[in-house]
Amino acid sequence: MVDEQGEMLGVMPTSEALAKAKEAEVDLVEISPKAKPPVCKTIDFGKFLYNEQKKEKAQKQNTKSHEIKGIRLSFRIGPGDMDRQRNKAAEFLQDQHPVRVQMVMRGREKAHKHLAVQKMKGFLESLKEFGIVEQSPKFSGFQIVSVLKPVSKNNN
What we know:
By secondary structure, the protein is an alpha+beta fold.
């Protein structure tokens, strides 16, 4: 039997171990039942479960998945809006989120795909310090799509 502080109390019958746990107002928990003799520890089980839940919650926060963030551009986007979208994309990349950049083309814009690709490449080039082009611009229906992945923090 082991107490709350980790001190060995020695081998004793189960009834005596339960009596000691009840006297100390804690629970008797079997740690390794297959050992000869089985090892038990006196702990406050409610407090133990609470601490385990806190550890799991902290671990979940640390391993937060990096969801893909999206930026939408238009063919006729102005310089001010382009800067705003660039800053937003840079912010996402600094937070280690991959960014999908879409440029939607409507009507007569579809006839000038080469201009749209140039505009998209210029946008991606302006973000090269924050992210690496994972998927170069390619056509998907009436839009051009590209994906940037963040530069790893170790390289900065």
